[in-house]
Amino acid sequence: MDPLRIASPYYKMKVPKNSTCKERRPVLHKHDLPLTALISYPGSGSTWVRHLIQQLTGIATGSPSCRRKLKNSKSFSVGECLTMARDPFDTLRSGYSSKHPGHSESVDSEIFNVRGWYEFVRDHTTLWERYYTEWLEAERPVFLLYYEDLKTNLPATLKKLAHFLEWRVHKKDIDCTLVTSEGHFHRRHVHNITNSEIFVGKLWHKLEDAELNLAEIASERRKAGNYVESGTRLKNILEKADEEDKEDTSL
Q1: 39 forms bridges with which residues in the sheet?
Q2: Could you tell me what percent of the chain has a pLDDT over 70?
Q3: Closest C-alpha among 153, 152, 99, 159 to residue 124
Q4: Where would one find coiled-coil regions in this protein (predicted)?
Q5: Measured between alpha carbons, how far is 116 from 95 in angstroms, rounded to an integer?
Q6: Number of neighbouring beta carbons within 10 Å of residue 108
Q7: What is the pLDDT of residue 37?
Q8: Mean per-residue pLDDT, 38-51
Q9: Strand partners, 228
Q10: DSSP class of residue 2?
Q11: Are strands 227-229 and 80-85 parallel, antiparallel or unpaired?
Q12: pLDDT tens-digit profile of 193-216?
């Protein structure tokens, strides 16, 4: 979990090619400010979200000093919770690949054909579901931000994100964030093997069940209030499950 802190009004600028927009380089504020927790499971895209927040609002999203402070503190006060989630199949795939720096996921599919991969998925399926369940059930304002909503409708998702952070943005802020959205840390993968080929048998079904359980918990949290969703990802998960139930009933 990482803190989000307000940046100072001074930025070092870098002008992207073929654009009048300038890439923001925020500096952390000198004084402590209220924290918004950025919650994400490894491989969910939090690095990209940090970049987008900085480009959109000027909010710096942490520093080594912040990390040391959190590491040395057993507890700290968090007001709101920005919960970053992603398709768990892609999340675990990305997380596992990052643990094998000597391999390239785009060309070396052999890293998935070992016992370690199956054990990784088995263990992390439970951890992934438990991790998000605990944060969604916590009694604090929550914004459930899906990576897929950022990919399918970035402008609308950015507007919701700014509103949750209580940061006023203008059309130019959105437009320039779209121009500089890629950043310098966005990893590119060209998959030569599909998820259905590496998540086989029980691995697939257990992870699919975990994703549905989380969607149902989020749906209940929506009814309780103090909760915002980023887009249509959650709705799509629940609708897909309903369609599958109807098909099973008709058989």
Answers
A1: 83
A2: 73
A3: 99
A4: none
A5: 13
A6: 14
A7: 85
A8: 90
A9: 143
A10: E
A11: unpaired
A12: 788 888 988 999 999 999 999 999
- Which DSSP string corresponds to 172-186? HHHHHHHHT-S-S--
How many residues are there in the chain?
Answer: 251
Q: Locate 241 and state its tokens.
A: 């499950």
Q: Which residue has the tokens 């643990």?
A: 99
Q: How far apart are CA 105 and CA 125, in angstroms?
A: 20
**Which pTM value belongs to this model?**
0.79
CA distance 7 to 62: 10
Residues 6+ apart with CB under 8 A from 186: 47, 48, 51
Alpha helices by DSSP H, listed for the chain, are: 46-57, 64-71, 88-98, 115-136, 147-152, 154-164, 171-179, 195-198, 202-224, 233-250
Q: DSSP state, 194?
A: -
Tokens of 51: 């970049």
Least confident of 44-48, 76-80, 125-129, 242-246: 76-80
Angle separating helix axes 115-136 and 88-98, nearest 10 degrees: 120
Give the integer Cα–Cα distance in Å for 155 and 150: 8
Q: Is the Cβ–Cβ distance between 111 and 103 less than 8 Å?
A: yes
Instruction: Return d(Cα 234, Cα 132) in angstroms, integer.
Output: 14
Question: Stretch 103-123: mean pLDDT, rounded?
Answer: 75
